[in-house]
Amino acid sequence: MKFIFSGAEKLIYIVSPTTNFSAEELYSEWKRWFISAVENSRYLDAMNSVGGNSISSSKSIAGYIEMLNGWRIKPYDGNYTLSVDGNLFATGGLNPFIPIDNGSVLLSLETTSNALALSSDVEKIAEAVWKYSQGGWFIDKDNFQMVMLNMDGTELQRFNCFDDNGNPNINTVRKMIPA
Fold this sequence. Notes:
Elements: E1 3-6, E2 11-14, E3 20-22, H1 23-36, E4 47-50, E5 59-61, E6 64-67, E7 72-74, E8 78-85, E9 87-90, E10 103-110, E11 116-118, H2 122-134, E12 137-140, E13 145-149, E14 155-162, E15 175-178
Parallel strand pairs: 2-7, 3-8, 6-9, 8-10
Antiparallel strand pairs: 1-2, 4-6, 5-11, 12-13, 13-14, 14-15
């Protein structure tokens, strides 16, 4: 067992000697914990999975695991490197990890910056680039999002916009994540 879930504290404890895990593995373990007992389901959701699904035979949306409702991850005390594979983030641009009490943990995150994972088929890649470049876009000020449009004006994709500090912002955008 790599994780202990505490709904009352909104904490996910990493169990020693775990030094690596994937964002998808964490999400799957949380889902198992959540449905394993009625009392677990009374707590607010800890995570949400976004993306990871195929949108055609040659394209899939990169997967992201979003920490929700104030839930955080607490590594065990000690001096070690903790490697996390996958796109793991917390709502509001917060750090999904909280500090340990004793020791020093070096956190190594292996993430992807790809919003779409495309096949190596050049024609299909060109089609996707054309689609994104031709439809236009607008800023949804209420939701701090950039909205990409198809050529016919229908919505193609939304991106959450953040400033240097990870706060939702549309005036000084430094980072965009698929919504």
